Automatic annotation (TrEMBL):
<feature type="domain" description="N-acetyltransferase">
    <location>
        <begin position="8"/>
        <end position="155"/>
    </location>
</feature>
<protein>
    <recommendedName>
        <fullName>histone acetyltransferase</fullName>
    </recommendedName>
</protein>
<comment type="similarity">
    <text>Belongs to the acetyltransferase family. GCN5 subfamily.</text>
</comment>
Amino acid sequence: LKFVCFVNDGVDEHMIWLVGLKNIFARQLPNMPKEYIVRLVMDRCHKSVMVIRNNQVVGGITYRPYISQKFGEIAFCAITADEQVKGYGTRLMNHLKQHARDVDHLTHFLTYADNNAVGYFIKQGFTKEIDLDKDRWQGYIKDYDGGILMECKIDPKLPYID
Ligand code: ACO
């Protein structure tokens, strides 16, 4: 099992993983237009943390780090159907938090969670209360109806992964 973080940087191998992840999102997030998924996953401002097992993408999280604002917006999060509820979603989120803190120097995540994923995000430390100052995020993330805005504070010291 391997966790990697890639951006569409023109490297063939990275592109192959990103296409695999895009296909998982397209299946697992049927309410999202496929073109929108492709656009964000392939966008150079977005990064994707992925779980890879036996040389196959099992799932991932695509997010946009707003470096100057020190927060990240999670756009998509999914684990392939037959690998859900095995703990991969939790480990993935922990890798994301560690990477976002140590590489991007972010302090918070925001996401519009689907109704049925709110329970998962709560278990990952997200809340419906938004503590982050509005002027740090307003105008950066777009309003999206059909989702609930949730926030997670990244601990400055906690080791999220071994
Ligand atoms: N609702 C409530 N609780 C959940 C859900 C859910 N939809 N999914 C998982 N959990 C719980 C698990 O029971 C587990 O609880 P436990 O720690 O008490 O045992 C905990 O959350 C973590 O479970 P994992 O096994 O780590 O989660 P998994 O690998 O299944 O990944 C995920 C969770 C990503 C939500 C996955 O189920 C999935 O891909 N679902 C379909 C797509 C989806 O809804 N994605 C999120 C949309 S919102 C967005 O993308 C911004």
